[in-house]
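In this supplementary section we document a worked example of the pipeline. Step one takes a protein sequence of length 696 as its only input; no multiple sequence alignment statistics are reported here. Step two produces a three-dimensional model, which step three serialises into structure tokens for compact storage. The input and output of this example are shown verbatim.
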Amino acid sequence: MSNISWDFDLLRQQISKNNGNLLENLMREALLVDGILTSIDEITTEMLKKDDIKNYIITLRQLIGIFIKIIKERVALNTQLTKEGLYGSLIMIDSLEVSSIDAQTLEKLTKVLMSILLSREDVINWEKRAERIIVELCNIYSFSIFFNVFESRNYLEAHIYYLVSMEESKRHEIVEEIKRTILKYYQIDDIIQTFPLKTIEINLHGKILEENKNLLLIKTNDYLLETSGMGGILGVAVFASERISRKDNEILESILSIMTLVIGSSKALSKAIKELEYYAGHDPLTGLYNRRMFEHFLQYEITRVKRKQYKFSLFLQDLDDFKYINDSYGHPFGDLYLKEVSETLVKSLRDGDVVARLGGDEFAVILSETALSDARILAERIKKTFEIKKITTPDNKIIPIKASIGLVEYPTHGTSMEELLVVVDAALYKAKELGKNKVFVPTADEIKSSLKAQTAKFNILQEGIDDDRFEPFFQPIVDVASGEILAYEVLARLRSRNGELIPAINFINMAERLGKIFDIDRQIIKKAFQKKAATANPKLFFVNLSGKEIKDISFINYIIGLALEYEINTEELVFEITEREAVGDLSNIQELTSILNHQGIRIAIDDFGSGYSSFFYVKYIPVDFVKIDGEFIRELDKGDIKDIAFVESIQTLCKKLDIKTIAEYTENQGLLNIIKELGIQYAQGFYLGSPKESFL
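The serialised model returned by step three reads:
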């Protein structure tokens, strides 16, 4: 028995290791959720600069954040299921070790258990994997039937695996017994009326059932029955001539325990993974492809066209006056409006065409194997379809859908994805300039002009990075009561080759879109730290982080490493993120703040109040500073009661939560007086100090 005991110790170690690997993989799968928000950030970086849809996009991010929270809860549930499966397996091993099963059978069951490793492929294709293990177990102990039943949408689905050949009457007997089993577990009177039952029968062996074995014995188990769409019932059955022995019972229970682990965890995880992968590539509101998948299909179409030598068209569509609709009737109606647009687009196109929602009210369509002349006819027809389609507003008004469309053709308007996107974007805005609700196709001169402008802008950006010409500028943040400087916000400026200063607004959006922001911020932060160390400046440094940088722990570690290199106290650092970044990636922000708090680094939220979720998010993020959005501050001296009430409510909330407030855009003494009366502690603006190369 000593050898058997040693095998059990090894088995425990192996199962613990395998499940540990699975849990690690689950964490990686959870990162797919973060990929969704990364896609949304990239989609809306440019769009957020447009005042007419800014509030909508931030609200969209809030809704997506709530949706992602639900998905993550599902992942957490599956993780817990795996942990419970591990615990149950170890308990089962303990039971097996002291059971009456003979050593030879025990060794074979042990080998099956040790071979179970939940790879991603096995999880996705759990049905085939289950079949393989059922056959392995049947070779160890000959049973007649295995079945599993689970809820699928509005019906129950039973997979019945036959390990012996039998007459139709026997099969009918098995199905009826399974129905009785379902009735017992679900505590219902009529399985057909309550849950329509769909049976899938699989023959795994051709062995003939012996005539003298007429007694059907079934052992069952269940998992997560209370979780709709994930739980199920498992059963193993034998035809016998008499009641089976205690040893046979224990073997069947062991087989059932193994299959509960295999099917229960695999099926649940498969569902979660498929959902995560779907929403990593699709817009959760409309179900259309998102920007990431759109760019993937666009690049694929370009590659295919180069090989087959034909043309295709691409159009970019932006809804006209969507902000007015959102503001007038609310975001729920705005969502319904967007769904109507997406459904109309899909119905107006062919099956092979790609339709995507790029963010906000912007949609894109790839018309495969479609020349520009045909594409123009289609775009005009879609525009007219929108006009004809009427939508009833909450106050019973009838409004049409109006959209501006920019249309281009490959390779006429560009020979790469980047060129096509630049030209079609310019074409869309030209359509709006011409009066909206139009289809615009750029001329050859307009194409050259767009590409030339973007290329020149990119060259300036890249040359600045290569020549190390990005410089830090410092704007003071002032204590309202004392007038003393609390901190400096570190801002980026580009020094041209002729010495001219180029403001961040001229390059920051392109830098973020092309992933160059990391290179720029490395230069800015390093030079800022050098200056802080050289002057022994004790003031706080507010360092801006982009959406991509927040998600890159290596970049965070780079900044912390620089602080150590220049002997800068990390408690003098404040990482500043915009509210839209906090809304868009709450779980990642929470993880980030945990790391930063350990280092003594503080967090500030910029543009606070610009979205509808401001008050909700300070509950979950350990924020030290809130920078009240300048759009509210600059209106205070006009005496608008709503603006004053809103800013006052932010100040009251932050005071109760022990969060310091900073008023942005403080541009005159009148504003400063009002800010002081409201109790806001700090202020920032050109009146108090413009960005300079050196400290004040």
